[in-house]
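Complex record, three chains
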Amino acid sequence: MKAPLALLCAIAAASLAGPLLAHFLGADPAAVDLLDRFAGPSMGHPLGTDELGRDMLLRLLEGGRVSLTIGVAAALAAAAVGTTVGLAAGYLGGWTDRVLMRLVDGVIALPLLPLLIVLAALDLDKLGVPRGLALSPSISLVRIVVLAVLVGWTTAARLVRGATLVTRSRDFVRAAQSLGAAVPHILWRHILPNVMAPLVVATTLSVGDIILLESVLSFLGLGVQPPLASWGSMLSNAEELITSSPLLAVYPGAMIFLTVIACNLLGDAMLSRYDPRDPARI
Amino acid sequence: MIRFTAIRLVEIAAMVVLMSFVIYALIGLMPGDPIDLMMGADPHLNSADLARLKTLYGVDRPLFERYLAWAQAALHGNFGYSRLFAAPVVQTLLPRLGNSLILLGSSFVIGFALSLGLGIAAARRPRTRFDAAVNLACFAGVSMPTFWLALILILIFAQGLGWLPAGGIGGAGNSGFGDWLRHLVLPVATLTIANLGGYTRYVRAAMRDALGQDHIRTARAKGARETRVIWHHALRGALVPIVTILALSFGSLVSGALVTEEMFAYPGMGKLIFDAVMGNDYNLALAALLLATAVTMLANLAADLAYGWLDPRVSYR
Amino acid sequence: MFSTEASGRCWSATSRGERSRRWLMLAVLFLALPAVAASAHDELAIGITQFPATLNPNIDAMAAKNYVLGLALRPFTVFDADWKIVCLLCTELPSFENGRAVVTELAGGKKGVDLTYTIRPDAMWADGVPVTTDDVKLTYEVGRNKESAVANAEMYRQILGVDVKDDKTFTLHWDRLSYDFAAIDDFVLLPAHLERAAFAEPAQYRLRTLYATDPTNPGLYNGPYRISEIASGSYIVLEPNPHWAGPPPYFKRITVRAIENTAALEANLLSHTIDMVAGEVGLPLDEALAFDKRHGSEFNILYKPGLSFEHVDCNLDVPALADRRVREALLVGLDRDTLTKTLFAGHQAVANSFVEPQDAGYTDDVPHYRYDPKRAAQLLEDAGWHTQPDGARANSDGKTLSLELATTAGNRSRELVEQVLQSQWKQIGIDIRIHNEPARVLFGETLLHRRFDLAMYAWISAPENAPRSIFRSDEVPSEANSYAGENLGDYKNPEMDRIIDALEIELDPGKRKVLWAEAQQLYATDLPSLPLYFRSDAFILPKWLTGLRPTGNQAPSTLWVTDWVERQ
């Protein structure tokens, strides 16, 4: 478990350090230098330059910030939404449970990618989003996070519901109920802590999935828009130049691969550590 | 069981109807019109022509009216014409569905077989290097974006070695079954490798659990042959979670092969959905998405039924 | 396979063994011969990046469709590779000298023209039916009918009537006399003996047309090839038209494959699944250049400038852009020479005005704007935009100079150029916000409703096509004129209007040249938009193919497929 955790921390730290590094090198990741395209590694550009002469290392770190932000934010948001639904369904039971679970089943049963395409291609103006907001550079980021949450919350919901069902029949919960504790209090103090373990595992695993989702959306042209860079969009762009400058694709591809596999390994290690016979697994 | 199935089928039908309106509305929220795309292609077209064409294609009526018109026709089996292909929707959909099923079916069967072998082998050798290697390989397979995997395969086998065609579908000009088969190899390989990791992990986990059960120890103590222990006793117990996962993933494969189809220019359902949605072809996109939804839900139903059949402890009220 | 040590028995007579060996050698020779013959290239596989939506020539305008139909259908006239109008389906071009063109007086003092064409006597549809004026009559009916989904209805509106003289000769009555009166490129014939039935209900024609329901019907095609097989969305197979009377086509079969992913297209090319990539519907130029660098020695790559004028449209209603000094600053603040040299290896020539160098009306005698960031800064200062401590520019009201730049999303070339523009304009203190949209949104909504500051896209024109819709003051799209017109920047100059009107009716080439020069000079002085460059297409051809000539205009190179042969 230590290895993947260390790797992830290293990647995150490096990405966050990007702006500092840029300041230190005196370079601007967005600085276009047409005369220095596709350059190889050098003192000024440790990883060379890309198709517009921008420094590859800084772009990679900036891409890391964007990709990791999307991954972590979406994972946390999906977990939050899913937990709320799962707690409500598991604790309240009855019709609430039935309706919510039908909803969850319904969403799970939908074909994922085609719907994401439809949602990703929506015109924000028609939805009534104010034009200033709709045109800001980070809107594509927000859009991807929203999409990932819309399809990702169901896993957490199911997990939390299952764990809640198990936990709510435990003695200390009954005790709290008989003492007249309010429902939110019970949920927050008693149920939630016992539900955390599988939730944390699932959330960790989902970070990797979301990063992959982002790269697929970029491949389809629906991801992060330029000049904002993410690993996924860098990889998609480089795909067309693969025969002439393979390194442009190797770097972001390797970063995606390492990050996702680290997330998966970490999640897997946490899984076997916390509770190998967890009923909420699979 | 019959009652359960019947109820579920009704629920599926209701869900499909609900989805039809949702998708219709969503596509209506997409900006612009395909007619306007023509502006870029013809210097002689002027905007009066465009307005006339828009009226002709009926895109200036309100959304709900159009939906009802569509729904009415659909109930009579008429799903309208595809604007992109100038042909009836059903005629466009069916060959694509066939292509997708071939692609998905082959990769599913091959993937399942391979994952069964690998998963069982790994489960039988817990905590060995082989097990760790299989585990790592599984993770590697699912940690790569599919289009990247496709590209690597194309570069190695089509471009580098020249053994296989880099895309498209065979059979042009009666080139025969062998040609058709050759065109299938790389797309099927891509899908199989991409999903293999996930399947294998589930098989491995399920088999590990099953092998740890008491009745396995009993069977071994009774002197049963190892192969019988594995294939008869353990697998029986592991089958339930395996079948559940496989059935669920089959449902999502219908749409998930989109990236593979795009990379290999393989004319399947996924690519059709993408082209139809991006091209604002209402009729085609709607029908294709609904078909994908229905197939996914039916696969889930099949999974639940199989689950019930395999595990006698589960009963259906 | 023969084996002379067949069964271990010793074949007694050497003569028998010798005979076996001779048979073996002969068999090998026979087997080898077809292999030798088959290695000649009698089939051609072409890769394109888009599959044609519908094959009816008059419905939908699509480059991919025109390309494929160029192999199978003949238009009457077309601009060839030398940009001259030539007759393909007709016998000779109407002119005043040969009496086929006659000026007519119309109501209201307007001048029209009557043009008489004769269909080639040997023109036949691939099912053996000759091409006759019946087809002309049907085509005209379909074109005039408001309910059929004909794309270029404007042209049919300008034809007041058709008179049929006999089976092969007819006269078109035009309501105007324009300089290119003889060119009827868009008047592509439909086979009456097949399509008349489909046209019985005009509103249903686009669905009933045999081009959609039965596209492999030979009677639909009158060119050197006919379409013999289609896998919708994937490939089209063409075979020679048995009733083609022109020079025989070389290839026994042409397969056109649609592969949208350009990396996959290149892989197909390198693995010889396809032999060539069409320039008209092929790789974007910067990718073709990258491909050329790596694999150029294995192919014959031709670059041909086209009639696409890539520019940045300025919305003249935006206060900052209304000031001409700001527009000039934007232009001289761009190093277009370096841009085209580094991104496009010099293949996309820097434009100084809107007319392409190959066009007859082109002149170089226009103001040239060299890259001069100092002058740009000075112009901005003069216009009242002063540099702030943080590098940005603001005017006396405190407003920052910040503009939005839009282009078509998903077009990698354009996105690259956009980022270059953003970076270079940042250096003169202008903040640029990039906002891309898919083509259908950009052209269909955003630009039409004029919700933009700067927009980068291309104007596609025909040779010597007067710039009415893009420059005339009454062609600004608005609610009042139901969003007709393409003068998106709201450019109003009465002098330009006068030149446009004159250009449309002037027939004398000398006077036309003068008018064109005036138009270009006016454009380069007013700078309603910023000229960037003229786009080029890259044709990636196998070394063994010869005879293919890119035209550089809207006519696809496939119209001359009978010239394509294998190099001997």
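Note: Chain B touches chain C through 58 residues (CB under 8 Å).
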